[in-house]
Amino acid sequence: AEMAAARLSGSENRLVSLPLSRIRVIMKSSPEVSSINQDALFLTAKATELFVQYLATYSYKHGRGKEKNALTYTDLSHTAEECETFQFLADILPKKILASKYLKMLEKEKRDGEVREDNDEGEEEEDEDKA
């Protein structure tokens, strides 16, 4: 079995671009995984590579990449937001916004949260302000 694994790892290097050692580490980080079959590792690496290739190609074709002849982060985040197939990536590839805009959003969320919690008190305070 060791010879087969050694032979496989030699050909793997040509068939897969992603580093198998890193993929093994990621797979082992799951508590349900105790050992990883060499074939499963190779197939996971190849599937991941093909998925990334598909995501990149789709984003390039449907984004502004063709105009600029480049794939941008914006193209990827737009794909994650707009395409149902890739929507599970929306948290990983969020739209870029300015830090100042983000801080304003957080501030607004905090204020809205306070208004909901203290709804009755808020109305009383408004009445006092008018008087």
Automatic annotation (TrEMBL):
- Subcellular localization, per the record? Nucleus
Keywords of this entry:
Acetylation, Coiled coil, DNA-binding, Nucleotidyltransferase, Nucleus, Phosphoprotein, Transferase
Classification via CDD domains = HFD_CHRAC1-like
Q: Name one Pfam family in it.
A: CBFD_NFYB_HMF
Q: Where is this region: Disordered?
A: 109-131
Predominant localisation class: nucleus
Q: Domain named Transcription factor CBF/NF-Y/archaeal histone: which ranges?
A: 17-78
Record's superkingdom?
Eukaryota
Q: Does the keyword Acetylation apply?
A: yes
Q: Does the keyword Membrane apply?
A: no
Q: How does it assemble?
A: Heterodimer with POLE3; binds to DNA. Component of the CHRAC ISWI chromatin remodeling complex at least composed of SMARCA5/SNF2H, BAZ1A/ACF1, CHRAC1 and POLE3; the complex preferentially binds DNA through the CHRAC1-POLE3 heterodimer and possesses ATP-dependent nucleosome-remodeling activity. Within the complex, the heterodimer with POLE3 interacts with SMARCA5/SNF2H; the interaction is direct and enhances nucleosome sliding activity by the SMARCA5/SNF2H and BAZ1A/ACF1 interaction. Within the complex, the heterodimer with POLE3 interacts with BAZ1A/ACF1; the interactions are direct.
Q: Which PANTHER family match?
A: CHROMATIN ACCESSIBILITY COMPLEX PROTEIN 1 (PTHR10252:SF54), HISTONE-LIKE TRANSCRIPTION FACTOR CCAAT-RELATED (PTHR10252)
- Relate the protein's function as given in its record: Forms a complex with DNA polymerase epsilon subunit POLE3 and binds naked DNA, which is then incorporated into chromatin, aided by the nucleosome remodeling activity of ISWI/SNF2H and ACF1. Does not enhance nucleosome sliding activity of the ACF-5 ISWI chromatin remodeling complex.
The identity of this protein, by name, is Chromatin accessibility complex protein 1
Name the encoding gene, please. Chrac1
